[in-house]
Amino acid sequence: MTTPIAVTIAGSDSSGGAGIQADLKTFSALGVYGASVIAALTAQNTKGVTAIHDVPPDFVTAQIDAVFSDLDVGAVKIGMLSQPKVIEAVASGLKRYKQDRIVLDPVMIAASGDRLLAPEAIAVLRDVLMKQALVVTPNLPEAAALLETTVAENEAQMQAQGERLLALGARAVLIKGGHGSGAESVDLLVEPTAVTRFAAERIATQNTHGTGCTLSSAIAAGLAKGLDLRESVRQAKAYVTAAIAASNRLSIGHGHGPVHHFHDWWNEDDT
Q1: CATH number, domain at 124?
Q2: Element (H or E) spanning 39, and its range?
Q3: How distant is the alpha carbon of residue 77 from its chain centre?
């Protein structure tokens, strides 16, 4: 029996709610073995990010070589890559190991509002790494930043921005509507031949720390288990919606708390 393996290439969140920590929790919750390549260290908690320490590109490369030369990796999730040289190192490493089931989450701003991506890195992310990904998963502000335009205000504009990202070389784009308004939180999977709508009830909570990391990791978990992209997105959307709905069962920190990655495994009496 083959064990499904996914790798996260991202930044570490010292408070455990987002980044590498959220990714590994998500992989575990969904029955996938998780490995990691740490691209940055952050000093952060539920209230904000106080410091970022970038891992040197050559050490990012060393981690990639160590993991991919040994493990049979089924999918890769890419999160916070804050510097151009690190982005280039990741792109080169994944090409060297012929990885094509890549979920790129273009992390730019933390839930607290703190910037996580250097402005000069946005173009490198778009022009170098996005073309290698099977799917890129921007939220509304991230899609606007990648396109240097205004934030989409409705589904028609979301679809149009997804199509523009396809024209720039993306293979598929999941435009996430969590930053929107209305009773539903709608994500659109824009592919060259189809647009698929994924909707869930919008949940009123401030515990949204790590939602984007969790969704993209859940998609990668599905791909690692052999699901196709649409089914991976469908199952990931259901998982993260349930994790948000259960987040109030946790009492973590004094700001934007994390989603509940293990909502199906922890008893309510335990939380």
Answers
A1: 3.40.1190.20
A2: strand 33-45
A3: 7
11: exposed, middle or buried (C-beta count within 10 Å: 0-12, 13-18, 19+)? buried
Domain of 24, in residue numbers: 5-270
Q: Which helix (H) or strand (E) holds 175?
A: strand 173-175
How far out from the chain centre does Cα 21 lie? Answer: 12
Of the candidates 201, 200, 176, 204, the one whose C-alpha atom is nearest the C-alpha of residue 190 is 176
Q: Determine the Cα–Cα distance for residues 255 and 46; give it in Å rounded to an integer.
A: 5
Chain-centroid distance, C-alpha 185 = 17
**What pLDDT, on the 0 to 100 scale, is given for residue 180?**
64
Q: What domain count does the chain have?
A: 1
- Confirm if 260 and 205 have CB atoms less than 8 A apart: no
Which helix (H) or strand (E) segment holds residue 43: the answer is: strand 33-45
d(CA 247, CA 214) in angstroms, rounded, equals 13
The pLDDT tens digits of the residues spanning 79-118 come to 999 889 999 999 999 999 999 999 999 987 766 666 667 7
Comparing C-alpha atoms, which of 67, 20, 23 is closest to residue 220? 23
Question: Which residues form the catalytic set?
Answer: 176, 208, 210-213
Q: What phi and psi, each to the nearest 5 degrees, are found at residue 244?
A: -70, -45
* Residue 120: burial class (beta carbons within 10 Å; 0-12, 13-18, 19+): exposed
Highest mean pLDDT among 17-31, 102-116, 238-252: 17-31
Averaged over 42-46, what is the pLDDT?
Answer: 93
